[in-house]
Design goal:
alpha/beta; globular
């Protein structure tokens, strides 16, 4: 038998190269004037300026009268010119020495030393207050070199609740509230309605605070007529 003819193998077709679109430039080059591709930008770094430091509040200036010791009688005892009375406050005398304390102890005053337990006895305090009101003379509370105001207030409270505050605000002089401090056992000069607590004498009552501290508590200075002895 004659041999069968061998079928010729089909040659592979060459791959077609994609043709550029009409008007396109070869090599993927961009046209002149075309915008370049956007680049990723780093996030903007924001800096906050330091805020100006807040101004420190100015210290409250408390008005005070500066005197020499020789002026004490005119300014404190006699209140020449009526400045203490017009202020509506009781005086706070700042004396870093003991000269004012010594001077007032030997004057016609009812002197109370806030650091002396004997002076802070309830009966001693009570008689000092009603005696000062009855006879129209100063009551002196000497706090010496310590802030003794609140400690003294506690001692006054033993006599009558809120007594020192009542003295400080002068409320004790209103409507004869001081009479509540009088006891039936007190001498006639306090209990005799015909002679006790005459208005002329009551009006002469004063309350002096003394301290050796150069800088007493601000709250106390705000409530008083400050006199500084140089």
């Amino acid at each position: 038998m004659p041999p069968k003819p061998v079928a010729a193998k089909a040659k592979p077709k060459p791959k077609s190269t994609p043709q550029p679109a009409p008007g396109a430039r070869p090599g993927g080059l961009r046209r002149h004037g075309a915008a370049p591709p956007a680049k990723a930008r780093a996030p903007a770094v924001t800096t906050t300026k330091d805020k100006p430091a807040a101004e420190k509040p100015k210290e409250l200036e408390i008005p005070e009268v500066k005197i020499e010791l020789k002026q004490l009688v005119d300014v404190l005892i006699n209140d020449t010119g009526g400045k203490i009375k017009d202020s509506g406050k009781w005086p706070l005398v700042i004396d870093e020495s003991d000269r004012v304390s010594t001077f007032l102890r030997y004057q016609d005053t009812n002197y109370l030393n806030a650091k002396n337990p004997g002076d802070m006895e309830p009966e001693r305090i009570r008689m000092a207050i009603i005696g000062g009101i009855r006879f129209g003379k100063p009551v002196v509370l000497d706090m010496m070199d310590t802030n003794m105001f609140h400690a003294a207030a506690d001692k006054f409270d033993v006599v009558q609740k809120g007594l020192l505050e009542s003295v400080m605000t002068k409320d004790i002089l209103v409507d004869q509230k001081y009479v509540s401090l009088v006891k039936d056992s007190d001498p006639d000069e306090y209990t005799d309605q015909s002679s006790a607590f005459r208005h002329g004498m009551v009006d002469g009552f004063r309350f002096f605070l003394i301290t050796n501290m150069a800088s007493p508590p601000l709250e106390l200075m705000q409530r008083t007529y400050v006199i500084r002895v140089q």
